[in-house]
Design goal:
about 120 residues, mainly beta
Length: about 120
C-alpha cells in the first residue's frame, strides 16, 4: 500500500506564493510519473503539472510560467511552487503518483487533497 501525504496549502492574497509538498511512503518497487491536479467547486478535476522520473515536466497552459513542479526521487517527494497566484487558482490540490509494484502494471495513487485559497 502507498500513502501520499500533501502539505503546504492555505490562504494567500493574489500575487502571493505557496509551496505544496507531497511525500509518498509505503511498500512499492518504484514511482514513475508524479503530478498535481486541482478541483475547484463545481468543476472537474484538472491536471496542473506533471513530472517524470527523469525530470521532464508538463504544465497546464493556465499555470505555465507561474508554477514549477519538481521532485526529490531520494525522498519520494514532489513539490509545486506556485507564484503570482490568482483567485482562479483557488481549488483543492491533489497529488498523484504512478507506482510500480512487484506485479506487472502501474497503479495510480492519490493524496487526500490540500486546500489553496487565493483572495483578491
Amino acid at each position: 500500500q502507498v500513502r501520499l501525504v500533501e502539505s503546504g496549502g492555505g490562504l494567500v492574497q493574489a500575487g502571493g506564493s505557496l509551496r505544496l509538498s507531497c511525500a509518498a511512503s509505503g511498500s512499492f518497487f518504484s514511482i514513475n510519473d508524479m503530478s498535481w491536479y486541482r478541483q475547484a467547486p463545481g468543476k472537474q478535476r484538472e491536471l496542473v503539472a506533471a513530472i517524470t522520473t527523469g525530470g521532464s515536466t508538463n504544465y497546464a497552459g493556465s499555470v505555465k510560467d507561474r508554477f514549477t513542479i519538481s521532485r526529490d526521487n531520494a525522498k519520494n517527494t514532489v513539490y509545486l511552487q506556485m507564484n503570482s497566484l490568482k483567485p482562479e487558482d483557488t481549488a483543492v490540490y491533489y497529488c498523484n503518483a504512478k507506482v510500480k509494484h512487484a506485479l506487472p502494471g502501474e497503479y495510480d495513487y492519490w493524496g487526500q487533497g490540500t486546500q489553496v485559497t487565493v483572495s483578491s
